[in-house]
Amino acid sequence: MSEQAQTVMPVEPATSRVLGPGQTYSSVTEKIGGIVLTPLRRTPRGWLGGFTIAFLGVMVFLGAVTWLFIRGVGIWGINVPVAWAFAIINFVWWIGIGHAGTLISAILLLFKQQWRTSINRLAEAMTLFAVANATLFPLLHLGRPVYLYWFIPYPTHMGVWPQFRSPLIWDFFAVSTYGTVSLLFWYLGLLPDLASLRDRAQNKIVRVIYGILAMGWRNSGRHWFNFKKVYYLMAAIATPLVVSVHSVVSFDFAVSTAPGWHSTVFPPYFVAGAIFSGFAMVLTIMIPLRKFYRLQNMVTLKHLENMGKVMLAAGMIVGYGYMIEFFTAWYSGNIYEQTAFIARATGAYAPWFWLMLLCNVFIPQLIWFRRIRTNPLALWVIAIFVNVGMWLERFVIVAGSLASNFLPSMWQTYSPTIWDIATFVGTLGLFSALIFGFIRVLPMISIFEMRELVTQAKEGKA
Amino acid sequence: MSPNDRLDFAAIRDRLNSARGKEYWRSLEELAGTDGFLDFLREEFPRYAPEKGAPVSRRNFMKLIGASLALAGLGACASPPASKVVPYVRPPEGEVPGLPLFFSTAMTVGGYAMGLLVESHTGRPTKVEGNPDHPASLGSTDVLAQASVLGLYDPDRSNTVMQGAQASNWDAFLAALKGALDAQHGSQGGGLRILSETITSPTMASQMQALLKTFPSAKWYQYEPVNEDNARAGARLAFGDDVETYYRLDKAQVILSLDSDFMSEWPAGVRYEREFADGRRLVSGKTEMNRLYVVESGSTITGASSDHRLPLRPSQIESFARALARQLGLDVEQGVALDTKAVPDKWLPALARDLQAHEGSSAVLAGRGQPPAVHALAHAMNQVLGNVGQTVIYTAPVAVAPAAQIAGLKELVADMAAGKVELLVILEGNPVYNAPADLDFTGALAKVGTSVHLGLYFDETAAKCKWHVPATHFLEGWSDARAYDGTVTIMQPLIAPLYGGKSPHEIVALLNGDAAATSHDIVQGYWKDNVGGGDFQTFWEQTLTAGSVAKTALASKSVQIAGGKPQLPAPAAAGQGIELVFRPDPHIFDGRFANNGWLQELPKPITKLTWDNAILVGPALAERLGVGNYQMVELRYQGRSLHGPVWIVPGHPQETVTVHLGFGRSQAGRVGSGAGFNAYALRTSDSPWFATGVEVAKAGGTMLLATTQNHHTIDGRDILRTASLDEYHKDPKFAAHAIIEEPPTESLYPPIKYEGHAWGMAIDLSVCTGCNACVIACQAENNIPVVGKDQVSRWREMLWLRVDHYYEGDMDNPVAYQQPVPCMQCENAPCELVCPVGATTHSDEGLNDMVYNRCVGTRYCSNNCPYKVRRFNFYEYTDWAASQISLLHNPEVTVRARGVMEKCTYCVQRITRGRIDAERENRPVRDGEIKTACQQACPTQAIVFGDINDPNSQVAKLKQEARNYAMLPEQNTRPRTTYLGAVRNINSEIG
Question: Which stretches of B843-972 are assigned E, i.e. beta strand?
């Protein structure tokens, strides 16, 4: 690396490195912790602007949900036969996005991938917020949301239990488990950093809050020993969840009879899709953030490139899934499956299907080019396409399949209402607001792991 | 108190009328916001009323509101009628709360009666069934009868005497009428005219006779927009006399309909459907069936049920009838030449041969829209085929004083316009809305001294009359009426008038000077005078119990065609340009049922449209005009025009458009006003049924039409399995051949053993006509809400049972199939597996029960239902606000809340009732004892329900039939509802 890297203004480090040169313990701590500990009055204008827009989204969401609770799910465009649409599409989309976090923090941790270090915290937070958004939808889409608690197997004098054969119950457990584990894992990883913030806080109130959240972390060897043990254990627990959650989500469809849903390829294909969209969302958030907060030395091109590669690989599995779906429909000789897939490519929703192929299969092929995957802007644009494409994929599967069912007399299409759109846009706002809040009050990059990286860099390992 | 100070009912009515659809007003409380209401209080309850401007204590206010609301007469708590009514089966002593009682009565449409049994729960009529002992019903009903009970409770019914637009009262009306009548006594009634609908009532006949004796110069006219003028004129043409015709289709092997929609039309559609079906039910070893040819100018269920259908322009049908008559050897003049494109060459000779081969067992029916010549030709053909006395029965006219109704109305309007009419009494009917457009009835009405309208609604006619008196619904007052064969039913009420209505009998008695007579006294008085011998009380009770007066069917009359061949007018000239056909709507008829939400929302046969009429055209004409569905066009005829949306109907005759009457009402009520367009605007007195030379022009713009089925092609699937009779003879098991090989039927879950009952259903597609009676019976039985046009257009209709309709073959004349689809009650039900909370569960008798109060509304069950028979309450559809409607609800069926899934349960409440009855009598449930609502209503008995564990049950036997098949068997759902494949008796000469 050249001398210029030593100057204050960051420059893109070489793509082969996961850490810019010249980073020290204190520079890392200063840089990351500084963002959080900036006094209230010196909050960056960009942050304020962004948060305001996100907050407006939250208001849209609250408005849409209030009207939903007043009038009922009839305000959406759903019907019979298309009884599921935006709510379930959004649910699956958000859950998919929520996959990258655990994958990055747990699986890559176990595989000792150093490049995960500077992105795992944000990815985990994003996961949590995505899962939080996702879990809203099963609640909102219920005809009688007050009775959501009937999904919980609690003992009653009536002896009534949930119906354990239903994939929705499996879903309930899978998602709640995933949400819980993700939260714990994320909080656990925050402990040493919360202690650092406590120690560096100038303001007494801030110090007390971080102090409570740090749960008495004193940086002792014993703490570190236990911490590492639990952290790796949690990673091991979280790893199978990465596969299980979206497999179970896919059972909602695969277990049913509907042509276009009833398919054994769904679990792996959904997991790949989840990783695909999860990485796309991390890139979508990370690329502007590193620019805004000048984190190019910590989130290097190497990170972006690696994430691009994972996205490309996952995207190709997804593309393969699309192909196999069509092949199976043809090969099975099942007229209902065939009609459903012909309708998918040529029916009412055909434009969305082809747009989905463009976004998910064709555009990501650009990542094969090194120049493109090391260009943050290009990668960001591709990631946006993938986000859109993955949403469209769920739309095509959920609404498109239901619209072409067994009986031609019941072929009816679905179109969203303003409330469908408002609810979705609202959750985008909610998600963004949570992300903005997170980067303001918690370190978006793991300080203690970056310090480890600094040490390793000194030892020539990074 | 001057009238101006009173509560401004007109304003309230305006406010109410401005709200359409489901926005029913909650109560008078909502209306109480008007100043007029407080004035009203002050007048009526001076003790409690606040001084103007003085504060009211809360306590007083509550008292006032309570008292005034109760007394305002809109309370729904009507008591049972004071006069004695006699239940059908069970003795009247000691009504057991919770157990329904059934009373026999009858409903009339166009004057003709259909005998009914009406279910009553603690004094509230809730459900209509057919009377098995009545000839026009045979235990079944049609859509109009099924929906009539909703009409009873309709909150929009007129509830007060009106003087012009002002609310008045009965005494004021009596005083006004007395003045008008006194004037008439001087002139012997020279200025008195009475306009009624078609009357078959013997009591009314004698009342009218008496009235005309008092006022010898008065005149009585009858007018129905859907009248039998052509049939009457045709009979006169053939026989020189008024003769009523009815058919014995059970004896007919070959039936030809000349534009006659005999299956869905009163007076005997229900009976004809049964007879037609009985002649083609390929069960218990029967291998032959009757054959139906339909030549029609529209798209009706009769045509859709035919073996051979020939769509012809309405003006061509006379030519067709003439050509056929000549083939049969009748010496009649040739009509306009028929091109071979319209009538394939082999059609006529093959049809003639088929008819001749069935002399004495064939029948030729002419439609009421066809000119008298076609009716005369049908009579002549029936005579030459030896059908008279066999399949065709002639009797004396059923209607009282039959006359040409349109000519009569013309005469009346002329008198009115000339100012000769001083007192006009309109006994029901809505001539302002439905009189021929060229007569200007409305204008003439303004010149009448005193005009009185008796009607269920404050409708278009009521608004133009000086006085309006609310009428009783047929379930509220006594009357009598004749069926198609003359059988008289004494119609007994089930409830006292809900809205203070008066019966037409009471009004006629009033005109004759008897203001005190009640309909009960009048009707009973008539029968007392006319029943010879025996104890009258016994006669009365027996008659009411049986539902018809014994031995009142008219004797068959022997008539001969004068001179051996009918003296026909010269053949009509060829129709020019596009022809326009007027038909009564299959559901709201001539418009009188326009405010009935069930009928408005019931998908019409073939088109599956709801809530609107449309300009129906064939695909070829649509292509030529360059119009598509939903596009607005303008119809112009004789200087009049109307706008309406196009709907393309495959198989509709070339160069012909059909419009249905009954829509475009301006004062029907909140449900019916403004729906569709008014086709009467083009209907003139000289061409009431079809018009030639109609211009059709694109009008620009589109209109939303709500249909419940968008795809009418079967798309290569085997959900409907069909064969011709020959194919059936070669391979009776034709329906067993599936396009997808059934996989080994294995389930992840252990099979359930059904040791007690195992309920199942079989639906014979060979005899289903798609008449929709089952659908509306289901709606009435199961408290299914009406959702409105907007919701239907979003595919959220709630009907548990639907009739799917599919076309097969040529777009210009396709074969149509109807398939009723209730819940299949799968043994391996996909819906049950996916419900997260176990709200839909399997009963030990094999039903997929739906536990409404456990349902959280994930809708997963609907997604997983291959048959899509589940319905979801997307909104709060049940109208809790209209208290009258809640009286209608079946107390044995839960009323569902928002966010809950619902579905067909095989009428589980009826099953339970049957089981309880059997257990109490310590015997097994008898086969046929439990009938589902759809089964009970079905005119053709296509739906059979029962215990498939009982090998001797009818349903178990049907499931053993070779034609039995399950829909989507490869899904391994093992449906309990199965179908018997449709067989058509194709004439191989036509192919």
Answer: 848-850, 871-872, 901-902, 943-947, 964-965
CA max distance for chain B: 91
Q: Do residues A340 and A259 touch, judged by C-beta distance below 8 A?
A: yes
Strand (E) or helix (H) holding B246: strand B244-247
pTM for the full model? 0.86
Give the CA count within 13 Å in the CB-facing half-sphere of A137: 28
Tell me whether A80 touches chain B (CB under 8 Å): yes
Tokens standing for residue B295? 């030549």
The closest alpha carbon to B830, from B860, B808, B796, B795, belongs to B860
Give the rounded percent of residues in chain B with a pLDDT score beyond 90.
51
CA distance A95 to A176: 11
Q: State how far the Cα of A406 lies from the Cα of A402, in Å rounded to an integer.
A: 9
Q: Best interface-test mutation with A: which of B834, B876, B968 has the largest number of A CBs within 10 A?
A: B834
Burial pattern B346-369, b for ≥16 Cβ within 10 A else e, equals: ebbebbbebbbebeebbbbbbbbb
Pick the residue from chain B with its C-alpha nearest to A262: B864
In the prediction, which pLDDT does B38 show?
52
- Residue indicated by tokens 């009448």: B448
* Residue in the block written with tokens 């493109």: A372
Is the pLDDT reported for residue B326 higher than 50?
yes
Please give the torsion angle defined by the CA atoms of residues A124, A130, A133 and A136, in that order, rounded to the nearest 10 degrees.
Answer: -80
Identify whether the C-beta of residue B113 lies closer than 8 Å to the C-beta of residue B481: yes
Residue of B nearest to A162 (CA): B837
CA-wise closest residue to B676 among B631, B641, B644, B642: B644
| Cα(B21)–Cα(B238) distance, integer angstroms | 49
pLDDT score of B27: 41
CB contact under 8 A, A161 and B838: yes
pLDDT digits (tens, 9 = 90+) for B498-518: 888 899 999 999 888 888 888
Residues of A in Cβ contact (< 8 Å) with B719 = 406-407
Strand partners of residue B114: B107
Enumerate the β-bridge partners of residue B129.
B117
> What distance in Å separates residue B830's CA from the closest CA in chain A?
7
B3: number of Cβ within 10 Å: 11
Supply the ipTM of this predicted assembly. 0.90
CA nearest B748 in A: which residue? A165
State residue A391's pLDDT score: 93
Interface of B with A in 800-859 (CB under 8 A): 802, 804-806, 819, 821, 830, 833-838, 854-859
CA gap A167, A244 in Å, rounded: 13
Question: Judging by beta carbons within 10 Å of its beta carbon (0-12, 13-18, 19+), is residue B54 exposed, middle or buried?
Answer: exposed
Q: Does A72 touch chain B (CB under 8 A)?
A: yes
